[in-house]
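Project standup — Tuesday

K.O.: blocked on the structure for the chain from last sprint. Re-posting the sequence here as requested.
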Amino acid sequence: MPTSSERTNALTLHWLVCGAMLLLLLGYNIICFVWADDVRINLPESQRIMIRTLLYVIAISLFPLTNLMRHILLRLNQTMPGEKTAEQRYLVTVIVTQSMIGVVSLFGLLMFMLGDDINTLYIFTLMGAVGIYLHKPKQTEFQSVVYALTHKND
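H.V.: unblocked you, prediction finished:
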């Protein structure tokens, strides 16, 4: 039976994925502040409004879709045959969900590059940060995968 520290160490790579996503958020926000004039295209307001509205709809839709995808992937982690360990299976779940939410945060960068205000960058960045927090690795989910794999043949 693994000890508590071994179970915590099993999720280290999973937490590094979340850290990389947060560094991505920080990185492109710094780029937008330092090189704001160099990265902006300045599309007309009417075009930006249409694009921004579409991106908001996509972002709002991605949150429940990501939650559904996480639920499906967790269930597949528990039931799919194969030789992958619980850590490997759960890592795929974390990477997929973090990537889906990472798209939301990149919408802010896109809109800033198209000429939108810094507020839009903030809104999408905060939505991405909330998504990273909501879809962080969870010990209980990981333990459910471990339990299902160890009791698969019972």
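K.O.: great, moving the ticket to review. Residues 4-150 form one domain. DSSP finds seven helices and no strands in the chain.
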